[in-house]
Amino acid sequence: MAAMKILIFAGSTRQQSHNRRLAAAATEIAREFSAQPTLLELSQFDIPMYNADLEARGTPADVLRLKEEMHSHPAWLICSPEYNGSYTALLKNTLDWASSPVAGHAQWADGTLAFRGKVVATASASPGGLGGLRSQAHLAALLLNLGCWVVPRSHAVGQAHEAFDEAGRLKSGRHLDGMRALLEQTLWATQRLGA
Ligand SMILES: Cc1cc2nc3c(=O)[nH]c(=O)nc-3n(C[C@H](O)[C@H](O)[C@H](O)COP(=O)(O)O)c2cc1C
Question: For the domain with range 5-193, which CATH number is right: 3.40.1160.10, 3.10.20.310, 3.40.640.10, 3.40.50.360?
Answer without folding.
Answer: 3.40.50.360
